[in-house]
Amino acid sequence: MAAVNTIKSEEIAALEDTRYSAMLTGDVATLDRLLHAELIYMHSSGVADSKVSYLSGLSDGVWAYQHIERADQRIVVQGDTGLVFNRLAIKVKVHGVLKGLDNRALAVWIRDHDQWRLVGLQSGPTGTAAT
Question: Rounded to whole angstroms, how far apart are CA atoms 42 and 106?
């Protein structure tokens, strides 16, 4: 079982790399493939987006990610559910205004029809402003 969970963890880690790369480049097609139809994306501001509204925000330039640095990543897999814990340092333009974020995040991946999909994301500030 440990070997299976290690393989699943590696798959999810690679998907997280792909997701963050797509966020930085505005690759909505890749994100559309990775995100579950029932996604709830909870921003550190407390605003929640669905898959449709999140992708629309990226397409429309509501968010333009400039830099994302991840640290302290830990992946926990149980069956067809994977939890990814991270600390994130993000520089993002929100409605054209550059913001620095220092957050902790939990990404929830589920295996749906033989594909891993991101179904939930919760992000919150650490209490320390990013520079």
Answer: 10
Q: How many residues does the chain have?
A: 131
Residue-range domains of the chain with CATH = 2-125 (3.10.450.50)
Q: Token pair for residue 80?
A: 């067809």
Q: What is the pLDDT of residues 71-109, one digit of tens each?
A: 999 999 999 999 999 999 999 999 999 999 999 999 999
Which of helix, strand or coil describes residue 1?
coil
Q: Distance (Å, rounded) from C-alpha 88 to C-alpha 65?
A: 12
For the whole model, what pTM was predicted?
Answer: 0.91
Distance CA 7, CA 59 (A): 33
Sole residue written with tokens 């097609």? 29
Q: How far is CA 72 from CA 39, 82, 86, 89, 129, in A?
A: 24, 16, 5, 11, 18
